[in-house]
Amino acid sequence: MCSIVVKIGSSSVTRATGPDPVLLTSALDAAIGARSIGWSVVLISSGAVSSGSAYLSRTLQIRPSKRLAAAVGQPFLMDIYRSVSEVSGSHVCQILISESDLRSPTAMAALASVLDECATAGVVPILNGNDVTDMLGSDNDAVAAGIAVAGGADKLLLLTDVAGVYRGYPEDSDLLPDLSAESLGNVSISNTGTGRGGMGSKLRAAQLAAYNGIETHIADARTPDVITRCITGERTGTRISAVRPRFAACDRWIAGIAVSHGTLVINRQAEESVRAGSSLFASGIKKVHGSFKAGDVVSVVSPAGKLIARGACRVSAALLTLVRAMQTQEIALVLTEVLWQFHAGDSPDQTRGGSKHSTSETQTRPQVDRALALIRSQGYERTRQLALEIINLFPTATAGAMFGSKTSDRIESDGIGYLREQYGKLSSDLSFVDRKQLVVF
User: Fold this and answer.
1) Of 151, 144, 108, which Cα lies nearest the Cα of 126?
2) Could you read off the pLDDT of 85-100 as tens digits, one per residue?
3) What is the pTM of this model?
């Protein structure tokens, strides 16, 4: 059986008075009917926040939070879906996806298993991001792409309140019937709807799906029979073709299921090395965007924005920003400066400043000087977090320098110099995205 993931945006789901029952009924009827032509449908339905807000604005004197609006609006959506399914004798189920789920391979594997079971049993799953518990809310376009990759879907359909992707703005330009994944970054967009993501979010989701072997369509939710037309191959909206075959299941987590928490811009030499099978090292990283932790999945792009790969980064954005585009000995200098500032800040009799083994001994490049200055100016808590991250990277060498020292004086005179030497050796083989945790497109 073939499968399609259909995401319906907030601007389509909700009218001024609340959820649009006609549109939701049409979507679910199409999902139920698709089974008769050999397709299973996963519906990702936005609109909980806007539906709850519309209802509460008529019944409360105060403006509710988005979390309360989501909690109130979600049952409204499900009431409509359930009433439609009962008329047709079919079944629906509700699944809420939280940010923690999108960070967990185990949780997403469990979700994929449930979706497989739904397809077998003829149950139509209704998914939504969990706007009650997620601090920043959920990007349902990204969720839709991740779900499509996780389940090995054949198609992804992103429904919105415009007919597709336009050459410029819809008011004064032509609809683009086909787009390549590489051209999506050059599309002019205008986010004017009620949803969180807008067209930019849809284009990013479509690009990710395309690089994971999934054809995507962006179309108007109010086009008659739009879901059925997409399934049967009729022209509707804008189509973004798949770039390559789908990845094996073992690569899908990094390739497209996990939400990307940042972006690494790399130079041409690093791109060539990565495509030849190498890991990604600091010297090839030009810029770091986003706020991510060690272990988070990040996107790897060219200076022009072309998606090259995705991988699990070994360090946080804060640490990688300090050492990007640096050589081995420069990395060692920066890392030991962090530990020196951590030691100085943790010792009442020490004053913060450069270590004795700092830039006075060697000529350094401006970017190294900037990194050292930033380390010395930041607060103790930030320094502590970076220091603990470095210790986890090099536990044996760090323990040998710090715990092997009998006195604070020895840490000052010997430990930093010893660490500089050891980190210099270890950093020569320090990949920030290891090849085993990197999927190249």
Assistant:
1) 144
2) 999 899 999 999 988 8
3) 0.84
